[in-house]
Design a protein that fits this description.
Chain lengths: ~375, ~290
């Protein structure tokens, strides 16, 4: 069905289609609309699910852990301080191998209080063992949420998935949305290690040095397998519903001398900048990075790269720029831009490309370089 | 005692300290709950007592969870199991630290939401797992590794906090009275909604008394009126048998204090304050039971 919706409503619609057994959530701007919409669906009976209105994000994820371990499909949503408040449990979900799906509406962290978009919240959970996807449109928020369940629940993966969408620029803007009849795209939830009183086991007990590392390695092995599973699920999605996705969304990259790498809505904005640059005769392309964990293999050989980071690791640099540098050996031109919702237009992005200085880092609006 | 099943769900040779009363209690809790039960255990002595992977000392599934999260995790689990049409007992077995301090938010949330589960706090009045630091449940005057001069403030009144949530069933128990505990667990599990049992669980290394005195220590807590056994069903209080007698003519508080190293060198002022607290509690609960509020 074709309609128009905000990114938040799109996520809620996908969750409704996925029919989780439990939704446990705590509100925070700009995610609130997702949990309100889900509560509404549950109240009207459009979604037959248990809605647990918990008292904090730490409890939201703890409740998801209990529910998922109990054997039902589970969803939550959060943002920013909420995500950081649940951090301990974010690790726990992955360690317990529970395929919980969570929407994280990316937002900056205080102080000062700022409810606008930034990716530092998600990146602060980088090493938790969660898969992380960043979407660029309302439609993609819907599609990625549906696929997230299928990827997370695949027996080769059994890890939680975080669907990231930019606060306000995606969560609250309306775009066209085509919802689908998912049919048997998502099979009934089956967790091989669900709690079973007929087969009593200890879940997550003390684990000594001789075994602990095996569990860690298992997570990494699943992360590696997840690349193939993601590709399969995205392929099946394309076949069934006609929209295709990959680890990156490439735009006019084939013959590009310089490639812009960004995530989320800035990655989408970059496409307009590329058109401008092409009009000016600059052979530019853009690669919107969709998957952050597992981090994709990127073919950037022989190109210059401009990375826009909507995040920062203090005392070090942009997180994406660093990832590109260490994965590809290429010294990108690193631009820190869009923090806390700072406005970045496609003209600005075109300027980043025009004024690029490989190996350098620039803070947009602070340095006079751009 | 013959009513208590022979089946064991907590096997022998756990890594608990000699004389550990909380593991003794757990044994009775599980006997009362039976095999269709899941334990949710936050970080505490119990998360160690169950053994190291791949072994387990327990014959029911045990879900280990982070320190602050037990009640919330149980909330999710309870909802999931009922969504699947299962009637499995979901039981949190948490220490006092994980209940009165770090876990109180999730406890409160789960009770307010009316989660169908049983929350048991075994109260050894300190953080046993990390080596006997004070908790909010450590009584006035008790020495712990972080209150080496004796705790300057009173024990947090967990029961009144829980009571304020109006659960359909709550009770206190003590390891020295296992049959009383067994019956309370049975009754709690027969009631729908959030249930709570607070067990006083003497701990030889924490309280600094000889291991063989564990049962005696629990009895003295009850006989002196320091720990009062009762049930509150749908708000109605009933003092349990052993405390009924004790509250009429409590044994001298000294009997309880003197055998415990944690109360060594207690000042007369603190002792007096403790005595007054005991009297106030006895009076408060007696009045409530008699319907004089
Ligand atoms: C967030 C967090 N902080 C601290 C700890 C360390 N820790 C583990 S158990 C524990 C004390 C537990 O005390 P209590 O709940 O009274 O149970 P007991 O050990 O006495 O059985 C502490 C402080 C932890 N696991 N997690
Ligand atoms: S420290 Fe106390 S509660 Fe913990 S195992 Fe030892 S005796 Fe039991």
């Amino acid at each position: 069905m074709l309609t128009i919706a905000t990114g938040n409503k799109a996520v809620a619609a996908a969750v409704k289609a996925a029919k989780p057994g439990v939704v446990a959530a705590y509100p925070i701007t700009p995610q609130t609309e997702i949990v309100e919409q889900l509560a509404e669906y549950v109240t009207t009976g459009e979604l037959e699910s248990r809605y647990i209105p918990v008292e904090s994000e730490h409890s939201a994820m703890a409740a998801c852990i209990g529910a998922s371990a109990g054997g039902v499909r589970t969803f939550t949503a959060t943002s920013s301080h909420g995500l950081l408040y649940m951090h301990e449990m974010v690790h726990w979900t992955a360690g317990a191998r529970l395929p919980v799906v969570m929407a994280n509406v990316n937002r900056a962290l205080g102080p000062g209080w700022n409810t606008w978009a930034e990716h530092t919240d998600a990146f602060s959970q980088r090493d938790t063992g969660w898969l992380q996807v960043f979407v660029g449109t309302v439609q993609e928020a819907y599609d990625a949420t549906l696929m997230a369940f299928k990827i997370a629940e695949n027996e080769k993966v059994l890890l939680p998935v975080m669907v990231n969408l930019d606060g306000f620029t995606l969560s609250h803007i309306m775009q066209s949305l085509e919802t689908v009849e998912i049919g048997d795209f998502l099979p009934p939830f089956h967790l091989p290690h669900a709690i079973d009183t007929e087969n009593p086991c200890g879940y997550g007990p003390m684990t000594g040095p001789a075994d602990y590392f095996r569990f860690r390695w298992d997570i990494e092995r699943s992360m590696r397998d997840a690349r193939g599973v993601i590709a399969d699920v995205e392929r099946e999605f394309a076949e069934r519903f006609g929209r295709s996705y990959g680890p990156t969304e490439d735009y006019r990259c084939e013959d590009a001398d310089v490639v812009v790498i960004a995530m989320g809505s800035l990655g989408k904005e970059a496409e307009v900048a590329i058109d401008r640059l092409r009009d000016d005769g600059v052979k530019a392309g853009s690669m919107r990075l969709r998957w952050f964990r597992p981090f994709p293999d990127l073919d950037l050989a022989g190109r210059e790269v401009v990375v826009i980071d909507r995040d920062y690791s203090f005392g070090f640099g942009g997180v994406v720029a660093h990832s590109i540098r260490s994965k590809t050996g290429i010294e990108p031109y690193s631009v820190i831009a869009g923090l806390g919702g700072q406005e970045v237009t496609y003209n600005d992005i075109a300027d980043f490309v025009r004024n690029r200085c490989p190996g350098e880092e620039t803070w947009f609006g602070v340095s006079d370089h751009v | 005692m013959s009513a208590i099943p022979k089946e064991e769900y907590l096997y022998k040779c756990t890594s608990a300290c000699a004389g550990c009363s909380s593991s003794l209690c757990l044994r009775y809790v599980l006997k009362a709950a039976g095999p269709d039960s899941v334990l949710v255990v936050p970080a505490c002595c119990t998360s160690v007592i169950q053994g190291i992977y791949p072994g387990t000392a327990m014959n029911v599934p045990v879900y280990n969870i982070a320190f602050a999260a037990a009640a919330a995790c149980a909330s999710g689990l309870s909802n999931a199991l009922s969504a699947l049409g299962k009637e499995t007992n979901v039981i949190v077995y948490a220490g006092d630290g994980g209940t009165v301090d770090i876990g109180i938010q999730s406890l409160s949330g789960a009770f307010e939401r009316g989660t169908n589960f049983l929350y048991i706090c075994y109260d050894n009045e300190a953080y046993g797992n990390t080596g006997m630091q004070r908790s909010g449940s450590t009584p006035l005057g008790a020495r712990t590794t972080t209150t080496p001069g004796g705790k300057p403030t009173a024990k947090k009144d967990l029961d009144r906090i829980v009571e304020a949530h109006n659960p359909p069933y709550m009770a206190t128990a003590c390891s020295a009275y296992p049959l009383d505990l067994y019956k309370k667990v049975k009754k709690a599990l027969s009631i729908e909604g959030p249930k709570f049992i607070h067990i006083l669980a003497p701990c030889p290394p924490g309280w600094r008394y000889p291991t063989e005195k564990t049962v005696e220590m629990g009895k003295l807590a009850v006989k002196t009126g320091t720990w009062i056994l009762y049930e509150r069903e749908f708000g109605k209080l009933a003092i349990s048998g052993p405390s009924k007698a004790a509250m009429k003519k409590p044994a001298p508080l000294e009997d309880y204090i003197k055998g415990q190293g944690r109360f060594k060198n207690l000042s007369p002022e603190i002792f007096d304050e403790m005595r007054q607290q005991v009297e106030r509690n006895i009076q408060r609960l007696s009045r409530e039971e008699a319907g004089v509020c």
